Amino acid sequence: MAQKPSIPKGTRDFSPNEMARRNYIFDTIKSVFRLYGYQQIETPAMENLSTLMGKYGEEGDKLLFKILNSGDFMKSVGEEELAERNLVKLTNKLCEKGLRYDLTVPFARFVVQYRGQLQMPFKRYQIQPVWRADRPQKGRYREFYQCDADVVGSDSLWNEIELLSMIDMVFSRLKVRVAIKINNRKILTGIAEIIGEADKIVDITVAIDKIDKIGIDNVNEELRSKGLSEEAIERLRPLLEMNGSNEEKLTTLSTLLAESETGMKGVEELRTVVEGFDSLGHNCVADIDVSLARGLNYYTGTIIEVKALDVQIGSITGGGRYDNLTGVFGMPGLSGVGISFGADRIYDVLNQLNLYPEDVAESVKVLFVNFGEKEAAAAAKTVKILREEGVAAELYPDVAKMKKQMGFADSESIPYVAIIGETELQEGKVNLKDMATGKQETLTPEELVEKLKNA
Amino acid sequence: MAQKPSIPKGTRDFSPNEMARRNYIFDTIKSVFRLYGYQQIETPAMENLSTLMGKYGEEGDKLLFKILNSGDFMKSVGEEELAERNLVKLTNKLCEKGLRYDLTVPFARFVVQYRGQLQMPFKRYQIQPVWRADRPQKGRYREFYQCDADVVGSDSLWNEIELLSMIDMVFSRLKVRVAIKINNRKILTGIAEIIGEADKIVDITVAIDKIDKIGIDNVNEELRSKGLSEEAIERLRPLLEMNGSNEEKLTTLSTLLAESETGMKGVEELRTVVEGFDSLGHNCVADIDVSLARGLNYYTGTIIEVKALDVQIGSITGGGRYDNLTGVFGMPGLSGVGISFGADRIYDVLNQLNLYPEDVAESVKVLFVNFGEKEAAAAAKTVKILREEGVAAELYPDVAKMKKQMGFADSESIPYVAIIGETELQEGKVNLKDMATGKQETLTPEELVEKLKNA
Predict the structure, then answer these.
(1) Is A88 an 8 Å CB contact of chain B?
(2) Whole-model pTM?
């Protein structure tokens, strides 16, 4: 009967300690989202497979977790289909629902479904888990949280500036030093046009996106293998080797992309966003990086990526503008821009740098030792007052050895232990021990409340 | 290509307005859990089916949502099994994982899995969705949240008193008037013994649990149909007709159950809990109700149920003590007690009585109108200062007609609109309109910040 309990591979339990740290991150992100007027929505974990399938490519379809239909799931499966053992066909018969793969497709579905009731521009945030049947490995999970903020129904570049400002505030509050990289899809299009290889834009962006990892020579090698002419590769070089300030880069781009209307539009957009962001004054800098591509087929304007400066890790936040998110659900022409905070990677960064507030995992401020019926009854009264005053407090529920109760306070990192023994009971007082310094003092209940409220 | 988007039946999307109201409830419950020293954990949405199956009865097994195995899910399905079309056998072959059905079984699994690392008593809370393939109907969903708080590893009745106190604080803060009903499983056992029908305890408790709904005559009829003797039914009557204060009921019970050791133990436990709760002074009253049973086979001591006084609805919170939660996972002898807040029903109650704070759905405190590039740039600077000072604020991103922007503020219930037009720009001031009163005043940015921080 007894089973050795475990959880599915690629999933995680979160202990109180881990939850406290994760909540610190989520609460920080949420509070910033709210200051910026983003409003929360939630969508169901299960979506119809018709909503999810075909949105993430063929590989994505395979990575969707599918839910077996309830009741007689074999009802509509014919003998021939069984004999054939065609997995795709069988899946369609056995399953109608799947687990959310990201927050973007459910958001697009949401916008279209409630379009009549939504006030545009609609600024929403959403923090929920997503599921992917990826092969689990270090840092890659089958269940993980996404934290997305998007605004749809506005073309204004103020939205981009605001998203950058939001990134700045989140990481300032988390005390993580970051670099923001920024680009514009129209500049990538302009580059492809200007080097005479407009039709190879996908190959070009996929290749140059790797420049940080593999270097310019290997990028050029890859471009050659994709059939780019030597002339095109030579014309590309100054763009990839471009450096200096944002202002210098924008000037260079204006010159190099002068012949491409789309390219020049991209330069103008990029200038507006970067200058707008700078003019407001922020802690971190947005650096123009024309090699930045991120899911090219998705973004149509601004592209944003954030990296931590003090930890070797992939991008910890990313986003951009898309112009046809809702088209697939029959609502074309709605422009949107958004960012997604990578909660799990941010968690790794904060863990590595130990950037949590000291009391992040504090369960309660004070534990009352339990010496027996009468003493506990008096303690319970004081505990109740403390809680009403907003001080987290608890009474050790069992009458146990002093050593055990102190050990409990210690292992739970409870900063104060309160003692109501026989003497204190008679005097109507409380003995309070500061667990860090070992200092003890005898206080009236009122003094105790006052002290712990400010501790 | 275009699909009319929808979500699976029995599931829900939550709009910003609904989320604000739900967050108000969840945040209230969470803040109370924390004041009492309960610490949060989270478990994965997917559990191994071996963890879930057999824990909720045969009917429950059918109501589990099962996840189709990834990859070649037909691999281990033999020809004979296919031909046979045995759903149970096929499910076992096709699926290894299922969605969480409640928070209790995952918690039990968690406690056993990490028993070496957990400090006892372990007080945990958990607020996560659960999924059930129930037939959807009004007020019953296939995805809904549970809010559980449990303490394991302590037999002390202080835990019960604390849980009652927590119920009191949650509903006091939510301004919902409630009645707490309380019973003890040992009293039910005692009753069955005393009327000479110990072996019929399940039938007896199932029947008397319905007394509020169907009345004593129908309860007796049901008991007769289950084979209870007329004598037993007569001996039961005074117990069911018992009324008066808790003290009077405890006295009556002590007399009537004097011959049952278990029954008398139950009376003592009940007295300790009720008197302990009363002695601390609370807003709501815990009333003894010996007909209260709730999932009898589960609870072994205290049984708790909460009903709203001003809305006709089922129980909105419930719980009790169980002595063998972890036995099925190979860890016997661990006692626990817990309660579960029914978030969806509490949401219904607050909606019906309109008990939300006035500003619950407020997105931002102030919207800055966008009159064009220069004005917007000045507005963006003030918006940034407001946000840094903790005031949620936004700039309308697009240059649109005044009427449209004011209409946006109105439909989003934004209490203030700030205007920086040509005049204000020259004077370095902001014109602020109170949307409720229509009153306008011209302020310096510093005055504006001060005013809105306190608004």
Answers:
(1) no
(2) 0.95
